[in-house]
Amino acid sequence: MFSLLVNIPANAKWSPNGVTIAGGNKAGCATNQLDWPYGLSVDDDQTVVIADCWNHRIMQWKNGDTTNGQVVAGGNGVGRGLNQFNQPLDVLFDKKTDSLIICDWGNQRIVRWSRRSGTTQGNILFENINCYGVAMDEQGYIYASDHGTNEVRRYQLDQKNGVLVAGGCSTGNGLNQLNYPTYLFVDRQQNVYVSDNHNNRVMKWKKGATEGIVVAGGHGKGCALTQLDGPQGLFVDTLGTVYVADEGNNRVVRWTQGATQGTIIAGGNYYGAGANQFNHPIGLSFDQHGNLYVTDWGNHRVQRFSIEKDC
């Protein structure tokens, strides 16, 4: 995701009940529906874009309009055409070019799609990447996780192969290894945070480092506060606090810097369709006010959890 700078107080709390701001009308392809949504991104005006995976499209929901979204990329069936996607898994805003950067997983490519009115197709930026998550730093470099090679690479437009910034030392659980990396976050110092899914941990790779640091989980698969179960969506605030969608535990967990365990800030009430529940949370983001947004994959919806006003 884009490295949006969000100031969240260390003692912040969120409403335990989420509000559905997109989808939630069972799986489907109407403009008020989603079908297995994955990554999402939130703009300054609280506009949300969502990788609507099984509809092979990117959906946009504007703040205040929770009834119907708008197809802003794809939506022309599954395929390899420039106007098509094959199971997109992540999307972010590129404000400098007023476009969307999209991880087109099934086509093994990263695509740029202009947000200007009348755009009917995208442009391929990079190919032959088993991309799951994408991120962008303030310099405009694009980062992509590749779960096929278990690495993260940094790309610029004239550099098709990219530069290795995390993993790449075969599959494993060493500090220089990843095992099925999914979502990413890049901070202002170009430190890369990775949800190391099959190792049930979040790793931080400092710029230029040859190995990472475990910043969340890393104690095996489980539901204790020291553990994660298939981490997915990822966000880091200006204090360096890590927020992660703990998919298998149906919760969102916060890990402060140096913490030995996390705290649950949303969900954690078994799986279900209640306002305080998830059914496999995957995508995660915040708006500039500190409100939390989560793609609730199995419930085909996006939930917003409002930050408490006294924070």
Automatic annotation (TrEMBL):
Instruction: Give the matching InterPro entries.
Output: 6-blade_b-propeller_TolB-like (IPR011042), NHL_repeat (IPR001258), TRIM-NHL_E3_ligases (IPR050952)
As one GO molecular function, the record gives: zinc ion binding
Organism lineage string: Eukaryota, Metazoa, Spiralia, Gnathifera, Rotifera
This protein's species is: Rotaria magnacalcarata
Which UniProt keyword terms apply here? Repeat
* Protein origin, superkingdom: Eukaryota
At which residues are the NHL repeats? 28-64, 170-208, 219-258, 271-308
Stored Gene3D superfamilies: 2.40.10.500, TolB, C-terminal domain
Descriptive protein name: Uncharacterized protein
- Locate the coiled-coil region(s) and give their ranges: none
